[in-house]
Amino acid sequence: MAEGMTLAEQGAVAKEFLQGLLVAMGITADVGVKELDEETVEVTINADPPTELGVLVGPRGATLQALQEVTRTVVQSKSAARTDRILVDVAQYRERRVAALGRFASQVATEVLESGEERALEPMSAADRKAIHDALAENGQVVTRSEGEEPRRFVVVAPA
């Protein structure tokens, strides 16, 4: 936990910032805060229907990633000490993305096992790479590794 602000206070600052941003953008949505563990707070944005929230996610979550970084910067600017981990999610995008990447990883694993050859995936964010690694961690028939340099780091799936 940061010495300057509690996790709850960090969540409140993030929530206030995101509510102001939504008002400025003319988007009606609910902003919630949930402490995931002692060092992580998740701020969620949801609307019914969620159609106008797509602008906050962007292609492959790129806008969401930027929104999370800006939110983290705002919280850090209000704290004299370091801040904890702040996650931002819009319309359960992260959960859906992890599920989709899990399905994709399973498909790639099947193809790798059928061909007997390793396969390099396209460059992706650290969060997406982690989802691929996690999805295949229990599969004893394939192994995964990350290669390359940011921002072009990618996952390789190979037969075990």
What are the main properties of this structure?
2 domains; Ribosomal Protein S8, Chain: A, domain 1; GMP Synthetase, Chain A, domain 3; 3-stranded mixed beta sheet; 6 strands; 5 helices; 160 residues; alpha+beta
Helix/strand/pairing class, anyone?
alpha+beta
In one word, what is the shape? elongated
Estimate the strand proportion: 15-25%
Number of strands: 6
Overall residue-averaged pLDDT value: 94
Here the CATH topology of the largest domain equals GMP Synthetase, Chain A, domain 3
Please list the strands of the largest sheet in the order they lie side by side. 1-2-3
Which segments are poorly predicted (pLDDT under 50) over 5 or more consecutive residues? none
The protein's oligomeric status is: single chain
**In total, how many domains does the architecture comprise?**
2
Major sheet: 3 strands, mixed
Distance between the termini: 40 Å
Order of helices and strands: HEEHHEHEHEE
Could you name the CATH class of the largest domain? Alpha Beta
Quickly give the CATH architecture of the largest domain: 2-Layer Sandwich
Number of contiguous helices: 5
**For this structure, what is the CATH homologous superfamily of the largest domain?**
K homology (KH) domain
* Percent helix range: 40-55%
Our Rg estimate from Cα atoms comes to: 18 Å
